[in-house]
């Protein structure tokens, strides 16, 4: 900790798994007291052992623990936490929760409830992007409720088109419509799905782009200034969910990067954004143009990719901003060096349609060596609880070049052993080792296409 640095005294962490541990580690290094709010399902987790203090807030059922604003806020008050770090998922993008935190006078390691509310509505976010002069995917002007309106938009976008829930997230709340024949039925179904999944039936329409990459820009902002920390390429997806992320993108040159970064910064300045955020774009491989799709107003799963290529500890910067400090870094301080790749290691069986495979880890062996980082809460003897998502860790590798980074990641995946459960590691190794990934010439559909032609997927199942 630097002398006289103004920092929060204590932070309550309202999350679990690897991200809880990640925040605890940053707090320790800064001399901030970490208080972990955990559920009964996580009582034996590494986060509980490593936090300065830990408080059980409820049963394993997330609705009665991690997703309960009342329980989190009362734990923060009882332990006199100066601020709450929400991690990702759970309450991290729930503006009502953050409003409650603000009203109690507790700090929040993230943007204001107002920013979360406005950006969390993907329709409003798109309007803000347009106001900031950022290109967006052609589609409806706003919410679409009637078949007639949808049909009129379809005349502009053509088919296939994409219906998206304004409140969607985590790859859910999206449907591709192939033709006019099913448009009415699809519209009604996705509105119903959005209502039950997100408690908001608002949907909108976008042109469905077929040969695209997912490119996102990491930002840090203090309410006045904003800086961009390069891009992450998250094109390796299955069912709109990210499997592998890397930076820099093999498809982006200096000029495109400058344009993307400027767009992301303009968006932040348009609303006076504060804390860390990610501005997501789809990038058309043919036209080589980018379009804003959404902003995530929180730290993201794949943030270590950016940390490895910039040397900036994003969680510490989040904590500094939440402590009331202005950005310490300027745009000129951000230099991209080398290449980083992250694999999200999920306890899932690729040969059972990626069904979750929780259970006891009989033996865990961490990969190591130069440029290898494993962010995980698992250890030998730990039982992965069945109540939460199936991500058990992230393997992030850094090397001077993309090719060397692929080889290093393959080597590290080979060292990684999580005996007792089935993981996606061998499947990710196959993707990394494919000619397509190596060439860098991929789109968001390449994984699905590869899967179509395979009967059996590589697996560490015993
Ligand atoms: P990131 O955007 O950080 O790359 P994801 O989009 O996969 O990662 O989301 C991060 C976590 O938050 C995942 O655990 C995901 O399941 C969860 N999540 C994101 N948005 C929602 C949502 N609207 N409803 C429920 N869970 C969500
Ligand atoms: P989420 O909130 O679930 O992360 P996003 O809006 O970020 O939803 O989209 C998730 C993924 O869906 C993108 O990374 C991309 O692969 C795909 N996608 C989103 N919009 C479009 C579009 N207009 N055309 C084609 N694919 C899209
Ligand atoms: Mg997204």
Automatic annotation (TrEMBL):
Keywords: ATP-binding, Biotin, Fatty acid biosynthesis, Fatty acid metabolism, Ligase, Lipid biosynthesis, Lipid metabolism, Magnesium, Metal-binding, Nucleotide-binding. GO terms for molecular function: ATP binding; biotin carboxylase activity; metal ion binding. It is an enzyme of class 6 (ligase). InterPro entries: ACC_Biotin_Carboxylase, Acetyl_CoA_COase_biotin_COase, ATP-grasp, BC-like_N, Biotin_carboxylation_dom, Biotin_COase_C, CPAse_ATP-bd, PreATP-grasp_dom_sf. SUPFAM superfamilies: Glutathione synthetase ATP-binding domain-like, PreATP-grasp domain, Rudiment single hybrid motif. Coiled coil: none annotated. The keyword Metal-binding applies. Acetyl-CoA carboxylase is a heterohexamer of biotin carboxyl carrier protein, biotin carboxylase and the two subunits of carboxyl transferase in a 2:2 complex. This is Biotin carboxylase. It comes from Corynebacterium glaucum.
């Amino acid at each position: 900790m630097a002398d006289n640095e103004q920092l929060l005294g204590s932070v309550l962490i309202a999350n679990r798994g690897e991200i809880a541990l990640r925040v605890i580690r940053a707090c320790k290094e800064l001399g901030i007291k970490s208080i972990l709010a955990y559920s009964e399902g996580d009582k034996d987790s590494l986060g509980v052992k490593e936090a300065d203090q830990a408080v059980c807030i409820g049963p394993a059922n997330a609705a009665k623990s991690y997703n309960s604003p009342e329980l989190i806020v009362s734990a923060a008050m009882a332990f006199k936490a100066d601020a709450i770090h929400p991690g990702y998922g759970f309450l991290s993008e729930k503006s009502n929760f953050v409003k409650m935190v603000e009203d109690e006078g507790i700090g929040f390691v993230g943007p204001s409830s107002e920013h979360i509310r406005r950006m969390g509505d993907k329709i409003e976010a798109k309007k803000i992007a347009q106001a900031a002069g950022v290109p967006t995917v052609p589609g409806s002007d706003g919410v679409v409720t009637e078949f007639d309106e949808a049909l009129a938009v379809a005349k502009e976008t053509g088919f296939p088109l994409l219906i998206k829930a304004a409140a969607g997230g985590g790859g859910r709340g999206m449907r591709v419509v192939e033709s006019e024949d099913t448009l009415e039925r699809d519209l009604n179904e996705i509105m119903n799905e959005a209502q039950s999944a997100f408690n908001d039936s608002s949907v909108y329409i976008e042109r469905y782009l077929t040969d695209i990459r997912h490119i996102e820009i990491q930002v840090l902002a203090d309410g006045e200034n904003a800086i961009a920390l390069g891009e992450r390429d998250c094109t390796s997806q299955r069912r709109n969910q990210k499997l592998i992320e890397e930076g820099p993108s093999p498809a982006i040159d200096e000029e495109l990067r400058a344009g993307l970064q400027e767009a992301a910064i303009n968006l932040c300045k348009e609303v006076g954004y504060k804390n860390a955020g990610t501005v997501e774009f789809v990038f058309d491989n043919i036209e080589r143009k980018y379009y804003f799709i959404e902003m995530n107003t929180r730290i993201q799963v794949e943030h270590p990719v950016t940390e490895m290529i910039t040397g900036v500890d994003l969680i510490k910067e989040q904590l500094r901003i939440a402590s009331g400090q202005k950005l310490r870094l300027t745009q000129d301080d951000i230099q991209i060096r080398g290449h980083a790749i992250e694999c999200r290691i999920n306890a899932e069986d690729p040969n059972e349609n990626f069904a979750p495979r929780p259970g006891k880890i009989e033996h865990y062996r961490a990969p190591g060596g130069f440029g290898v980082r494993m962010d995980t809460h698992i250890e030998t003897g730990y039982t992965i609880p069945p109540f939460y998502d199936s991500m058990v860790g992230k393997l992030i590798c850094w090397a001077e070049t993309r090719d060397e980074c692929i080889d290093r990641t393959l080597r590290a995946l080979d060292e990684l052993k999580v005996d007792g459960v089935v993981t996606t590691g061998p499947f990710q190794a196959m993707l990394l080792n494919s000619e397509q990934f190596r060439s860098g010439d991929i789109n968001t559909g390449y994984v699905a296409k590869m899967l179509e032609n395979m009967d059996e997927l590589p697996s560490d199942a015993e």
